[in-house]
Write a structure and sequence with these properties.
By secondary structure, this protein is α+β, with helices and mostly antiparallel strands. It has three helices and three strands.
Length: 102
């Protein structure tokens, strides 16, 4: 499910920039640092790459909440797609693939 893009120009907030590709193997850690008096930091660490997400200017706005909800939805969609692919691979084991070719 693709959610509509947030339009920062309409809200007066500065736009986002940067494109990253991260191919995750088995060497990962995901975390959320929480603080009593400032915005949280979400992080992904793969030993060779380190990515953190936080709010600009440490001020949480409605736009940040909208982004966080969209991030949760996209991560859930990613999970469901990975599960689907894993289940499909398990259903078509080596014996079934060779039998279908015969």
């Amino acid at each position: 499910m693709k959610l509509p893009a947030h339009a920062p120009a309409d809200s007066g907030e500065p736009g986002s920039s940067l494109h990253l590709g991260l191919h995750v193997g088995g060497d990962w850690t995901v975390f959320c640092h929480r603080y009593p008096d400032r915005a949280p930091i979400l992080g992904i660490d793969t030993r060779t790459a380190y990515l953190t997400l936080s709010v600009q200017d440490r001020m949480v706005t409605a736009g940040h909440l909208e982004f966080a909800y969209a991030l949760v939805q996209a991560a859930n969609d990613y999970l469901l797609e990975c599960e689907r692919l894993m289940l499909e691979a398990a259903d078509t084991g080596p014996d079934e693939g060779s039998a279908a070719a015969a």
